[in-house]
Write a structure and sequence with these properties.
The chain is mainly beta. The chain has a single domain (about 1-95), classed as Beta Barrel (OB fold (Dihydrolipoamide Acetyltransferase, E2P)), CATH 2.40.50.220. Helices cover about 0% and strands about 45% of the residues. It has no helices and 7 strands. It is elongated, with a radius of gyration of 14 Å.
Amino acid sequence: MRLGNVVGMVVSTVKDEGLRGIKLLLVEDADEFGRGKGSYYVAADAVGAGRGETVLTAAGSSARQTKLTRDRPVDAVVMAIVETVERDGEVTYRKGEVVAA
């Protein structure tokens, strides 16, 4: 599993039939503070995430384990919208707040 920030959407009118009805998001890898790390990937959205949200993603065969993505040609899926990240007993990220690094 990876933390990421939704930075955009990917729109494709010509695609495999298995991708019909799936929203595709552009996700930037994030650290435990919710800061972007400069690497990007596309993930199928299984939870209704939107631009600006910090999310939890899964990749590889795990990406095909949600109800929406089962048996579909996806390599990454957004499976949770993150509210809080805690490391060593300290909150490093809280949705909607700036937490000092």
